[in-house]
Design a protein that fits this description.
alpha+beta; 10 helices; 61% helix; single chain; four-stranded antiparallel sheet; two-stranded antiparallel sheet
């Protein structure tokens, strides 16, 4: 009984822990990379390139085909063994085997294998880019949740101060030290703050649902994240020059590598199209055999009279007949040979070479070559555009990170200043030197400055991570 009770307690504890699980950013990113539909589609595209490569390698192998047919003929038909016309009903079987091998096809087989390798490499780069994009998207959504929670903490903390001030104001009003209007003003501030707290809680829930949907998690009610330990972690990226970051981006970013592989694919397509100008040489070998159960007619010598004398002409001068002896045959009907005997007796082979020389094909080869050359030029332009876009994005990310840092530092200074102003206003309000409205305005400015600092902090964290990704830091190695 004690064991059963202990087991129940353990299961309940595990269930509570599972419900209270809070996801870290690393867990969110890893879960997204394993379950995100876009990532899975990119992985399927990568698997498809293995099939294309297998097909390209298969072109180097000979082709082997076996075929057979069974038929029953009734009426006047040709015997497939004797090739004689017969009016009867018989069953026939034919078996064939063919082997073909391409000796030369304008080097298209070799280039198909080369193209398949390039296509796989391009798919790998696309998968890496997709994972980077998903990781960054998850990080942004995660930080939005943390930001909303931090803002809620600010509002709750300041509301606790407001409640204390409201209680103190109530005492001073009751004592006649402050007018009733100050109490009403503090109560209005408290009501406004409570409304802001409710809105902040809603923002947290909305951002959590957005993150859960991104992770394909359907349990919205219990889904939550860890909201501690996420500070500004600079691995030295902020001290690097934009030229250093640009160099790292060119060496590591998948956008450029994808565009480069697309150019190589276009080059191979041009070579494949030009290969159709060249002749194709193939070798073939074939084997076939046949069987029929039809009866045949055989000419045998008459054992009683093996020779017969027949006139074959007349001597012109004398008119004397000229005779000769000929074999005397009789026709008899013979049954069909056994199945395997006929397969052996009636088989045959054929082999040879086949040469196909393209002369004129309605300009299709020339058109395909021109189209492939245009695609190559387009791919070169896309590579050039990708380099320009990367340069623009890196400069933009660099400027954004620097600007976000300045905004964060300015927000911290504003908080320090507003805190001093708030403390001063609080002291004056406590001794009755200022009214509740002026005190509420000072408190509102202090609250807003702390929220602005949170916004600036997490905006800088995100833009710093974007800069690290451009520099070449893997998404799963980003530090927060």
């Amino acid at each position: 009984m004690k064991k059963i009770v202990s087991l129940i307690i353990v299961l309940i504890t595990l269930g509570v822990n599972a419900q209270n699980k809070k996801w870290t950013l690393t867990e969110c990113v890893e879960h997204a990379l394993e379950n995100n539909i876009s990532v899975k589609q990119s992985e399927l595209n990568l698997e498809a390139t293995d099939i294309d490569r297998l097909l390209a390698l298969g072109n180097f192998m000979p082709s082997l085909n076996l075929s057979s047919s069974v038929s029953e003929n009734t009426g006047l038909s040709f015997n497939p063994v004797t090739n004689n016309a017969q009016t009867t009903t018989f069953l026939s079987f034919t078996g064939r085997g063919n082997i073909g091998y391409t000796l030369f096809d304008g080097l298209r087989n070799i280039r198909e294998v080369q193209r398949a390798k390039i296509a796989k490499l391009a798919s790998q780069y696309r998968l890496l880019k997709m994972k980077d994009d998903i990781s960054l998207l998850v990080a942004n959504s995660f930080l939005q949740v943390i930001l909303n929670k931090a803002n809620l903490e600010v509002l709750q903390s300041q509301n606790e101060v407001t409640i204390e001030q409201m209680e103190r104001t109530q005492q001073l009003v009751d004592a006649g030290s402050l007018p009733q209007g100050d109490l009403l003003e503090i109560r209005a501030i408290n009501a406004s703050e409570l409304q802001n707290i409710v809105n902040a809680e809603n923002q947290i829930q909305i951002s959590l649902i957005s993150l859960a949907q991104l992770l394909l998690i359907k349990d919205y009610e219990t889904f939550d994240v860890q909201d501690a330990g996420y500070n500004i972690v600079d691995g030295g990226i902020a001290d690097k020059s934009v030229s250093e970051i640009m160099s790292g981006a060119r060496d590591n970013r998948s956008e450029i590598k994808i565009a480069e592989q697309d150019v190589e694919l276009a080059k191979k397509d041009v070579q494949l199209a030009k290969g159709n100008y060249l002749p194709t040489l193939s070798a073939f070998f074939g084997y076939d055999t046949r069987f029929t159960n039809a009866q045949s007619f055989i000419q045998d010598l008459d054992p009683d009279e093996p020779l017969v004398t027949q006139q074959i002409g007349v001597v012109e001068a004398t008119g004397q007949p000229v005779v000769g002896q000929f074999p005397n045959t009789i026709t008899r009907q013979a049954g069909a040979e056994p199945f395997f005997n006929q397969l052996y007796q009636n088989d045959g082979i054929g082999y040879g070479l086949s040469l196909n020389i393209p002369i004129f094909n309605g300009f299709s080869t020339r058109s395909n070559v021109k189209r492939s050359e245009i695609n190559l030029r387009r791919s070169n332009f896309q590579l050039e555009q990708a380099e320009l876009d990367l340069e623009s994005n890196v400069y933009q990310a660099y400027v954004d990170a620097k600007g976000s840092l300045k905004s964060y530092e300015a927000a911290k200074s504003a908080v320090e200043s507003q805190e001093l102003a708030y403390d001063y206003a609080k002291e004056r309000y406590d001794v009755g030197l200022t009214n509740a409205f002026d005190f509420s305005q000072s408190k509102l400015r202090y609250d807003n400055s702390k929220i602005d600092m949170n916004n600036a902090k997490y905006d800088y964290i995100f833009k710093l991570k974007v800069l690290e990704l451009y520099f070449g830091v893997p998404a799963n190695e980003l530090k927060f």
